[in-house]
Amino acid sequence: MDEKLTALETAIKAGKRKDALALTQELVQSSPPGGILNALISGMNDVGKRFKANEIFVPEVLVAARAMKGCLEVLEPKLAAAGLSPEHTIVMGTVEGDLHDIGKNLVVMLLKGANFNVIDLGVNVPPEKFYEAVKEHHANVLALSALLTTTMPAMKSTIEKMRGSDLKDIKVMVGGAPVTQAYADEIGADGYSMDAASAVELAKELVG
Amino acid sequence: MKLSRQQVIGMANSGLRMPIVADIVLHEQPDVMAARLDPAQLAQVLEQGARRFNTPIALPLMDLSLEKAFLGKALGIPEAEWATFHLHSLPDEATLAKAMETIAGPLPPLMQSAADALEVLGKNAQDLYVCGMAIGPLSLATKLVDDPIVSIAMAASGMSAEDDEDVELFECVLKLSMAVIERNLRAQLEKKPAAIFIAEPAANMVYISPNQMAQGSDIFERYAMSLNRRIRDFVEESGAQLFFHCCGELTDEMVKAFGDLRPVILSLGSPRKLWEIEHLVPKDVVLFGNLPSKKFFSEKEITVPQVEELARELLEKMKATNHPFILGSECDILCVPGCHDEIVKKIDAFIHVH
Description:
A: alpha/beta, 2 domains, five-stranded parallel sheet, B: alpha/beta, 8 strands, 51% helix
């Protein structure tokens, strides 16, 4: 059984979707879902580390994440039945006026790989929609992405919307090419991440 | 007015500085959309940008959404979704045929106005070199599907359109992209611009894995460079020069491929230090850039003295390489709401630095 779990972890690291899916389908028949989940998370953790070390690049991360996504779809009913659903929920999106999604998608994939429940609102998300999603999903963290200098002010207006509401204590993390720690501080974000791999660590800190 | 490679090299050797300021000047107009839709007003905007900063080339407004909107229309997608739509499956033959028919027909108003403005500018400002623009085909294709990076990675791993439906879809949108870009460019080339600026920001290591390239994949050539060579060929056949831009993170191999395209100007973003990569680019390709203009909007991000220091460093180090170089911004300088004056202060700073 351990060999199969190791093979699953290896398949995730290599982004071999068909192999990973076949192994997951086999393993769910006989293995505890927590063990399978751990193998998936371990595989994605390794991918995140190698990405941070510049050994692999965005395409390899997304290919691995796609493999993991297919496995999670098979595993999720078993996890729910065993009471092992993700503990923390993050609402994420690219802010209003901004249509860029690569960075956001990368963070979403890595957060899912770290066993967060991620509600991905997509791109061009107005403050009101972020507010509604955080409320509906009882999110622990709100993650905002922007690629353009011209859309960064929408991060500020989204945070203002949250701080002026009944959800004022929501932890907000921000990131994206033009965003800096100074800007994050200026607009009252709780955290800033300069890259996707660090975003996972930041999210863990914020919910910790 | 025609522009030669030697003239651009001459501009570089004379110490030209050239910010891309159309968006800044545009946002000084009382009604931005009205200005864009009126070729005379748009031509004035482009002329003002060149005159104010004393550049002989009138650079265009860099709107990378026009071609996608045209494709949205051509594919029968509701107008409200043109900016955001993604194709999830291969369009049927009838839809594709209708799309190609629409692309061959009249241009959308913003695209037509941008083309007409080139003609107006050519007549009104005969001392300026007029420049048109389009997005690059790979960059447009990446905007048309949900997960372009994985599709490209699959293709790079050896999957063909027959093997994988995502690869098949991506190759289809790449063809559509090329068709709409060619249509846009040919409309501009009829107005006899001196140059065409191709912005291909997705031809970078976020979309294309350096590991896959190192393992021998031809994906960068197949999905990016071969199409841009086709563009270069018909641009040059029309008597215009090619300016090529990519502001993404690049490997040496990518920079070299851009140099081998032999644009007259190669514009790169700030992730690469120009003096470190100039040896990868032929000496008659003028390097342009690459001050971090995305930070100009705030004093907290970058100060005027810091801009001056970076400009001096670029000028000194590029001079030492003896590679023709024009100091400029790393992309078009976008007008961040409420930050116009701060941005202009920094443009002025690098324009006047010694």
